[in-house]
Amino acid sequence: MGSVEAFRYLQSEATAWRRYLHENPELDYRLHKTARFVAEKLASFGIDHIETGIAETGIVALIHGKCGAGPTIGLRADMDALPILEQSDKNWSSKASGKMHACGHDGHMAMLLGAAKYLATTRNFKGSVALIFQPAEEDGLGGQRMVQAGIMDRFSIAKVFGLHNVPGMKVGSFGICHGPIMAALDEFDFIVKGKGGHAAKPHETIDPVVIAAQIIVGLQTLVSRNTNPMEALVISVTRFNAAQAYNVIPDQVEMAGSVRTLVPGLRDFAERQILAAARGIACGFGADVEFKYCRSTPVTVNHQKETDLAIKAARNLAGPASVDEKISPRMGSEDFAYMLEARPGAVIFLGNGSTASLHHPAYDFNDDALPYGIGYWATVVETVLPP
């Protein structure tokens, strides 16, 4: 194989698919139009077996190679959009107000569809390929639900591979590392309970706004003074609800946020110490706190052998100079982690060029990256399942 040029003939068609999907975004598991479009395209390629309705709107399709018996490997693309009002000003901008593909899942689907068309034509591999189109990645549970639905056993998937675009990385470049590559995501909620009153008489209150502000600052010392600086911990308070009037000190403040970790022990530390720190600060002011901590997506961990295979495939496609095999782990989370807990595999990053960042209203997937993603998927198959 050895070159992305072998896949450029698919770019125009994949661009049309991608822009259609971008214009018609859907959220979480409510991907009925999206799933129908994907299934119809797969059927038009002559795919051997297509199963829909997995975890509500997920799809798994099988392509059998022509070179004899062998294992099945999974290739996964996510399908859902985000509840964001698009500001990209592109001709193919979202037609659904308040919804947009701001994370490039439209591109991920188009690349896997392009690879499906190529692989269904060539079939130059042993064994089988399971094309996994997953709902609700942004919800953080779609990957888990696909695994719980039994796709790994039902389709005899032995290894699984993922891909995600990254703005700021040059188009045609790849990034990957062994071991943890993306962080675990946990979420927390606080209610700081004080005593409300008139804003002109703060001495007659136990002001939960001031206490909550102290808690926010105090939580950052868990990162800067209580955590090994070589181990990444991110604590972000992202929601803060207090009184709605200028002259009222409320009885309570509600706040919430997220925790990102790469080391399992830090998860336990964060859950324990966030509450201890908040409760200590609140008690010092005569207030109390209610606390809820929810563990969500686990750390995304690339397996050794499968990461080596992914590196080999990317190098064969784009050349060694275009593959960084020692990128720093990212503190974003990815529910592909659940699939990597169920089966050995690896996720790789693909450059999207100098576009707006992920989850930004001006973001758009770079169609110049499509041949690289298509080619990577095809090369992975022929690397892992050589004829």
Strands in their spatial order, largest beta sheet: 1-2-4-3-5-16-6-15
Uncertain runs: none
The biggest beta sheet, please? 8 strands, mixed
Q: What class would the helix/strand composition place it in?
A: alpha/beta
User: Considering DSSP H and I runs of 4 or more, what fraction of the residues is helical?
Assistant: 25-40%
CATH class of the largest domain: Alpha Beta
Percentage beta strand: 15-25%
CATH homology superfamily of the largest domain: Zn peptidases
CATH topology of the largest domain: Aminopeptidase
Q: So how many helices? A: 10
Mean of residue pLDDT? 97
Elements, N to C (H/E) = HHEEEHEHHEEEEEHEEEHEEHEHEH
- The strand count comes to 16
Looking at the overall shape, the CATH architecture of the largest domain is: 3-Layer(aba) Sandwich
Integer count of domains: 2
What is the overall shape? elongated
Distance between the termini: 12 Å
Calculate Rg over CA atoms. Answer: 23 Å
Question: Would you write up a description of this structure?
Answer:
By secondary structure, the chain is of the alpha/beta class. It has 2 domains: 4-182 and 299-384, Zn peptidases (Aminopeptidase, 3-Layer(aba) Sandwich), CATH 3.40.630.10; 184-295, 2-Layer Sandwich (Alpha-Beta Plaits). Helix content is 34%, strand content 25%. It contains 10 helices and 16 strands. The strands form 4 sheets. Strands 1-2-4-3-5-16-6-15 form an 8-stranded mixed beta sheet, with helices on both faces. A 4-stranded antiparallel beta sheet has the order 10-12-8-13, covered by helices on one side. A two-stranded antiparallel ribbon has the order 7-14. Strand 3 (72-78), helix 3 and strand 4 (128-134) form a beta-alpha-beta unit. Helix 3 (105-122) packs across helix 10 and helix 8 crosses helix 10. The mean pLDDT is 97.
